[in-house]
Amino acid sequence: MNKSQSFWTFNNVNVEEKMSIVDSELLSRWQELKVLIESLEQDIQKNVGGNKSAGVRARKGLRLLKTNASEIVKISLETDKAS
Q1: pTM, entire model
Q2: How many CB atoms lie within 10 A of CB 62?
């Protein structure tokens, strides 16, 4: 094996490791998003019942949901570009 083959093999391993890290981050963020949605469900139900504080929490959670969803999209795009 010459130097260039060794170099490419080394870089391919790093790319594969990076992809694995990005994939696990994507799955982790997705799990967090699902938990957030479940908690929003409770606050929205309470808000429908007339609880104004739950409405405030629901709106705050929806803003957080939007931000987290955007981050998941960015991670997904990075994964697609890298492969």
Answers
A1: 0.69
A2: 15
